[in-house]
Structure prediction request, 666 residues.
Amino acid sequence: MAKNISEKIDTLRAQIRYHDRKYYVENMPEITDFAYDLLMKELEKYEKTSPHLITPDSPTQRVSGEPIPGFKSIEHRIPMLSIENTYSEQELREYDTRIRRMLKCEDPIEYVAELKIDGVAVTLWYQNGIFTQGATRGDGLRGDNITANLRTIKDIPLRFSCADNHAPPLLEIRGEIYLPNSDFQRLNQLREEEGKVRFANPRNAAAGSLKLLDPSMTAKRPLRLFAYAVGYYEGKTLVNHANCLKTIKEFGLPVNPHYQICRNMDEVVLYCNGWELKRDQLDYEVDGIVVKVNSLELQKELGATSKAPRWIVSYKYCPEEAVTKIESIRVQVGKTGTLTPVAKLQSVVLSGTTVSRATLHNFDEIERKDIRIGDVVVVQKAGEIIPQVVRVVQGNRTGEEKPCIPPVTCPACNDTVVKEDVYLRCYNPFCPAQVKRKIEYFASRKAMDIEGLGPALIEQLVDKNLIEDYADIYSLQLDDLASLDRVGEKSAQNLLNAIEKSKKRDLCNLICALGIMHVGSHAAEILAKRFNTLEKLTSATVEELEGIHAIGTIMARSIIAFFSNSQTKEIIGKLQTAGVNRKALDIDESAASPIKGKTFVLTGVLNKYSRKEVEGLIKRKGGKVTSSVSSKTDYLIVGDTPGSKLEKAKELGIAILGEGEFEKLL
Ligand SMILES: [Zn+2]
Prediction:
């Protein structure tokens, strides 16, 4: 029996590692997230019954260890030297000439060109294929031992699949830890909602996440890795750098797929120019190109200066920064009352577009960076769409600059503002600025999608007292609209038609449109699916809401507070009178659905839905539910503590879905 469990554990670990590799390294997952979670849960179960079989390289042991007071500094076996930078095609060609002269080489030199990811450099040590230690670059000679935090990053295998037979006795891999732009934006949004200071850019966010003293916190940050070099190697001989990259990938670490072997410097230049604009399409920041001599023999021959190896050079793209002047600072009031200072800039071209404003985030930030009106500043787009002010060019100060004083009252309604963490907020529910932003949001595409109801029009409607809140738009008449500036009768009629059409929007759009704090379009979809009508959502309890996986306490409380507000009740009354749809729309059965004609079986206890609900949903979409698994079954939906149906489905190779995946299918 004991041998049996040990074998079972080995098999599960091997399966999980295999799927990690498919997902993280090859970007070709073979199983659903849910099926992966099942493997993980099964492994945890076996390890719980036999704790003596738990090894540090088990996939269950990524988050291990308690928070620590600080990081120990460790010496690098091979120094992590810096790289010589070049900034132009000419400098690159001079570099090529120089090293060819050193090597007395007439023929062109073969290079490998790679994207230079703007992240945090790390070194990773593997002993016999087991991840043993990882550190930051530090000053190049000594770095911080951040092994526990690096273990939480799923891109980093804790054990190579070849660890049992031919893994090198000792191997050092170097790479860059980064945070994808999309995850960076989400992280910053979340921090803003929680009243925390935003990260300046994805690199800072990655560096901050790696230096958290509690590995379980690092585990929550979606950090990723691209490995780019072998530092130290014992084992088979490697002939060139391209070979090293291939080997790294074989060991199961992700390598950026865009590297290229260039036969000469001309090809390197083409590569550099080609990526200058294309890099904007990537979901991570690239600040240049790294060019390496491909042959390891030549690398050895070239050696290093005291600062940098001679066989490597980087081509830096002009930073996507621009220098301009702050003409004025305006305070914007958001739909939830947050006061955001925005700088009006002298127009300047940045990353190919003309910009004339930059966000200053909050007044603490203005004070920290000592930003004044009239200052010459450096602006940058750092993983986001609206640029930000990076720093003041102090040398350009004339003494005429004026400090920006945080307002004590709301610029829109004169109500006293309250400081909450780093943000100033106006809590007046009738604040015209908030009302306007809420109406804009209500009319936006992901909400009620009312074409033609833009900021300029809303400004007039509110200022002329034609509407007080977004529900009032449904009582607008043709004469009201035609009386406004720059609105002809035809566009007024078009707008009325658009408003009328919006009454038929789905419940999820309506929930989103209400502008409940913390509830975006994604949460709105979940709520709509769960409650089916606005009335049911209105009467939901905090426990019911908290019980929904993606909602959480903060959002649940915000929803309860919103619906118990008397002003909300009045607004919902108006929407009801206007005949706005408040139901989840029935699914069009004629539409092609992945469920139509398919046979489902359920097993285990579901969290979000009752069995009846699931059956209803499947039937409405044209599928059917049977009680036992057979070769005719298309999908098995699995909840907690599944029965023998799961084993049978696995045997028959039937697709297995968790609740989340079932929702996606819907
Ligand atoms: Zn106000």
Notes: Residues 333, 410, 412-413, 415, 426, 428, 431, 433 surround zinc ion (CB under 6 Å). The chain has six domains: 2-61, 84-316, 321-425, 432-502, 507-578, 599-665. The radius of gyration is 30 Å.
